[in-house]
Amino acid sequence: MTTRITGIAELVTNDPAHAHHADPGGRLGVLHDAALIVDGGRVVFAGPVADAPSASSDDLTIDVAGRSVIPGFVDSHNHLVFAGDRTEEFAARMSGQSYSAGGIRTTMTATRAATDDELEENLVHLIDQARRQGTTTLEIKTGYGLTVEDELRALQIIARHSDESTLLAAHIVPPEYADDPDGYVDLIVDEVIPRATTAKWIDVFCDRGAFTPEQTERILAAGKTAGLTPRVHANQLQHGEGLQLAARTGCASADHATHATDEDLAALAAAGTVATLLPGAEFSTRAVYPDARRFLAAGVDLALATDCNPGSSFTNSMPFCLAVAVRDMHFTPAQALHAATAGGARALHRTDVGHLAPGARADFAILDAPSYVQLMYRPGVPLVQRVFLAGEDAH
Ligand code: NIG
Ligand code: FE
């Protein structure tokens, strides 16, 4: 069936042909008085209403009456397979304690003790919340099991809900290996990676209290041999070699990048590695925000994601992250929306999502606002009115 979305005051396409005055790089692509036509789950027309092909009587027409339509958010960094709760850790942090990677163990214990059904119910609930806030593609990581069986069961659960599954067995060294971290790396390389057949990505938390650059390289190399594509958590807690390593090993994305030197940014730009900035993490750990202007000036492609996890960033709201990114990371509104849609798609090596050109998946959101800029201008207001996944109403 053909669906025609009409009355669109502002259609964000991410098509560079639709350059936009408020976006000097011209990458967002915005049309006014536009129509979007969808057939078979794909976009067949995205353009000025005057150029739209004529309607047939069987078409379903939705008149959005002067609202804005945007590509669905591509949230390229999430940790959603977990059980338990760390509310008290957050409260303690907001009373002055600092964040450490050690809190991951609290969630590990609860996750290991949970049944498959409990984990899946929590996952589905979080995905549903994200959808209602406009997210149409979600990457999902393991990383709270940290045994062979628990990591593999997390992958199985993810596979039922996302094509973007990431093995993060190297999230932290579990307590059983506290005296033998390299033994845990051996376990990941020898026992987990060869059986991670449904995973698309291999990820490592390369930072203080987690894995060293040497361990990270070993794990990424083993992942690549098994057909997984690398990405890393790098330089969240302190400056280290993570960003350089990401560039050198061909990572699709280096995530967090809270601490980055000019040399790090030059290396990412030269390698074409996306930097995925995670405003929820700085927000929830009271850390200093990285400045998007530095990354963009260095020619680094940016993605914005939620990093939804129970420790450092328990938000799955891309609109919230957009607002913080603009206010505190100095993205322009256009740059932020681009990073949250096309940027995320690039970080996931996806060409079918994150934009609304003919041929793209018809994943989009109708905003209860005349402009996407209101996502940042009216923070915390539920402006995502309807979400479509492959042309179907997701609600
Ligand atoms: O991306 N940095 C490592 N992992 C998560 C935090 C996990 C946790 O605290 O449970 C992150 O911020
Ligand atoms: Fe993360």
TrEMBL record:
Fe(3+) binds at residues 77, 79, 233, 307. Its EC number is 3.5.2.7. Pathway: Amino-acid degradation; L-histidine degradation into L-glutamate; N-formimidoyl-L-glutamate from L-histidine: step 3/3. Binds 1 zinc or iron ion per subunit. It catalyses: 4-imidazolone-5-propanoate + H2O = N-formimidoyl-L-glutamate. 4-imidazolone-5-propanoate binds at residues 86, 144, 171, 236, 312. It is found in: Cytoplasm. The keyword Membrane does not apply. It is an enzyme of class 3 (hydrolase). GO terms for molecular function: imidazolonepropionase activity; iron ion binding; zinc ion binding. GO terms for biological process: L-histidine catabolic process to glutamate and formamide; L-histidine catabolic process to glutamate and formate. N-formimidoyl-L-glutamate binds at residues 144, 309, 311. Keywords: Cytoplasm, Histidine metabolism, Hydrolase, Iron, Metal-binding, Zinc. Belongs to the metallo-dependent hydrolases superfamily. HutI family. This is Imidazolonepropionase. The lineage of its organism: Bacteria, Bacillati, Actinomycetota, Actinomycetes, Micrococcales. The gene is hutI.
